[in-house]
Amino acid sequence: MKEIQVDSVGARKYKRKSLLAFLVFFAMIAIGWAGWKWLLRQPLDNGIRGGIQQPLRKVLDINEEVYSGLYSTKHLIKEYPRTAAAKKARVNGYVGLAADTFDPSTWKLQVVKASGDTLFIPMDDIKKLPKIDVVFNFKCIEGWSQITWWSGVRFSELIKHYGLEKEANMKFVGMNTPDEEYYVGIDMPSVLQPQTILCYELNGQPLPMNQGYPLRLIIPVKYGVKHLKRIGTISFSNTRPPDYWAERGYDYYTGL
Q1: Per-residue confidence at 39, pLDDT binned at 50, 70, 90?
Q2: d(CA 188, CA 71)
Q3: Do 34 and 64 fall within a single domain?
């Protein structure tokens, strides 16, 4: 009789716990649904970084503050021997690479100085600067990565050669394709990192058109969306320049 009473007590406790678990489960669903509906009603951040609800943008901004606070230009991305590089590099986007609006014979790199003056730098002058190789694991936000071999001139070398120290003391660099269809904004410390290059060769050969011929950015401390292909204009500012993917809801910093 005593054993039957114990079993009955155990069954009642089990039922109570089961009921409580179901109530908590449905309460969490209700809270999640209400939170989602609340979030959808929030105003968008419609500035140059717009495209998503302001609370989400604030979370991304906090992440950026944390990661940028920990960043050091002395931190180097792992490099590999040339033999480890893929023979055919994947293309991580085609925006800004329309062939019918680009004339390679007239291309010059445009660098807008803080004074408003613009330098027009031909490819031959860029190639006169010290050349380096960077072989690293290129990472795309789509989820793939690939070891690739790129060659060009350090961005910091361009700064030094053309006397752009004033510009280098500003907070951000903006880059646009010649047709202005694609554009990025990047924090200055990342651009001055010694592995960041203005690249004109892939696997020891001139860049293919679909990889940004004649000049592209390679910045190993960032995901591929920041590696702007076919640079037309470089500018400097203390406020965040427009950024193609940040305007579509992605993280502005996009660091690794």
Answers
A1: low
A2: 11
A3: no
Contact 252, 60 (CB under 8 A): yes
- Give the Cα separation of 233 and 198 in Å (integer): 12
Structural domain for 221, as ranges:
54-248
Structure confidence at residue 7 as a pLDDT band (50, 70, 90): low
Q: What is d(CA 29, CA 26) in angstroms, rounded to the nearest whole number? A: 5
Q: Does residue 2 register a pLDDT over 60?
A: no
- Residues 238, 179, single domain; the answer is yes
Q: Is 6 contained in some domain?
A: yes
For residue 128, give both structure tokens: 């006169």
129 burial type by CB count under 10 A (0-12 exposed, 13-18 middle, 19+ buried): middle
**148 close to 201: Cβ distance less than 8 angstroms:** no
Quick check: bond before 214 cis, omega within 30? yes
86 and 188 in one domain? yes
> Residue 30's Cα: distance from chain center in Å?
35
Lowest-confidence segment of 5-14, 129-138, 149-158, 178-187 by average pLDDT = 5-14
Residues 227 and 157 in one domain: yes
pLDDT of residue 11: 73
DSSP letters spanning 117-174:
-EEEE-HHHHHTSPPEEEEEEEE-TTS-EEEEEEEEEEHHHHHHHTT-HHHHTSSEEE
pLDDT tens, position by position, 74-123: 789 999 999 999 999 999 999 999 988 899 999 999 999 999 999 999 99
